Amino acid sequence: MLYHLHHHRYVSTQQTSLNIPFLSFLFNCENQNSYKKLLLIHIRSISIIISIFLNLTFASGGFGSYFLGMSKQVSADFIEANDDLNTKDPHLGWMILFLFPVSFVGLFSVVPLRKIMILGHKLTYPSGTATAHLINSFHPPQGANSFIWSFFQWFYSGGSDCGFNSFPTFGLQAYKNRFYFDFSATYVGVGMLCPYLINISLLLGSIISWGILWPYISTKKGQWYDSNLEENSLLGLNGYKQQIPPFSDQPLYESTAMTFDDRRRTDVFLKDEIPSSILSGGYILLEISSIITIPNIFPQLKPHHIFFAYLIAPLLAFCNAYGCGLTDWSLASSYGKMAIFIFGLSVGKEHGGVLAGLAACGIMMSIVSTASDFMQDFKTGYLTLASPRSMFISQAIGTAMGCVIAPTVFWLFYKAFPLGVENSEYPAPYAEVYRGIALLGVNGISSLPKNCLRFCFGFFLFAMVINGVREMAIYKKWLFCEYVPSAMGMAVPFYLGSYFTIDMCVGSVILLVCERKDKQ
């Protein structure tokens, strides 16, 4: 199970460019006794080393989405905004120059929040917790059962919609609405780590969206949006899915009782503080360097655009890190799409708004994604008694390496294969999706489907009401205060579907049965 959770963290996001899952496999295969000796001496160093190497996977992502969406070969599939102002072919030099300032910002913005997230709200961060257990136990032989299950599933996989991971558990109609159990040990394990309330909130959100809302909007096809649109068109049902989810956050109240291990972890976690002057100075320095370099790379983005992006980035980084701590899902791509709309609309199509929106998406996604992943690693460091300062330095080293290695690998693929070309070996469908979103953004709010904004505001108010009721219930100590659902948890399955929420609820059931059994 730990192998699945550890592997899931670094391969499930769209931004992943390099993966090193073999580290987990090595922990499975090597002799356990020899690792136990190493564990007693170097466990803190191991977590730091793994942080350096695994940081390569996210420090420089987005090559198959917004980077490739800028290219002329992807823009050739669209009938508008194909001019030089709205296109820019990838090149190794400017990609490295672009990635260095934006990839480091997330590190400096999230460090001051680590006490609030991990000690204050006691957020779970399931992937970070699983990685810590992996390091602490080095995967005992019993964990091989999870690997064997994946090996068994492999024999029945024949495509994207074939095998156990696409089994119509509740019937074909439910499967079309993404209600099915996909036999994923990863999500079952995440469900066992997440609080019961979060898993129930995820399931409730999937029922509201995929069970009620999307089927209802589908009946309005031809009235609210054109009936001849493709299924993935952002002018149709997919546009509602992109815009409606009620993103919000609320405090998570946990018990303040601490064990001896918790006190020891807290003492280590609070040592080796990173001076606030270094954090604030580093952030300001990166902002200044970005204001100078990025407009030279993308003249469509002016210095005041970069300043505004860096002004709101810490707030969005906090929201994403908080949501990731609750549900183990990073919504960095959603914040990136929001940046496409904001900056693309402000620049305008005639002045290169498509390219400006994609570049702003890269800035926002890099900052927000790095922040949530770094907080996951802080959780790992907290549980393995690693020094926060050492974790920060290791993250910086890994980020610097990723900013060079990842674009170099992408550049080799880009020059060797026809990336982003339809019906080719590497069609890169997300590149077209992100460019399509950028085209929507420059055309303004009027390009969205009918009643889309009404749904957006309605669900925003719905999330505010839920959070208000929760806060009031906790303050007044009402009996149902522990049963008010999480708006953040409900928002995640609106776009992703219901399959993983069912897996996570199965994990909660397994955990509940085990707890009841232990009590007996």
UniProtKB/TrEMBL annotation:
It is found in: Membrane. The chain crosses the membrane at residues 46-68, 92-113, 196-217, 274-294, 306-323, 329-347, 354-372, 392-414, 452-470, 490-514. It holds the Pfam family OPT. InterPro entries: OPT, YSL-like. It is a multi-pass membrane protein. The keyword Transmembrane helix applies. Keywords: Membrane, Transmembrane, Transmembrane helix, Transport. Signal peptide: none annotated. Belongs to the YSL (TC 2.A.67.2) family. This is Uncharacterized protein. It comes from Dendrobium nobile. The lineage of its organism: Eukaryota, Viridiplantae, Streptophyta, Embryophyta, Tracheophyta.
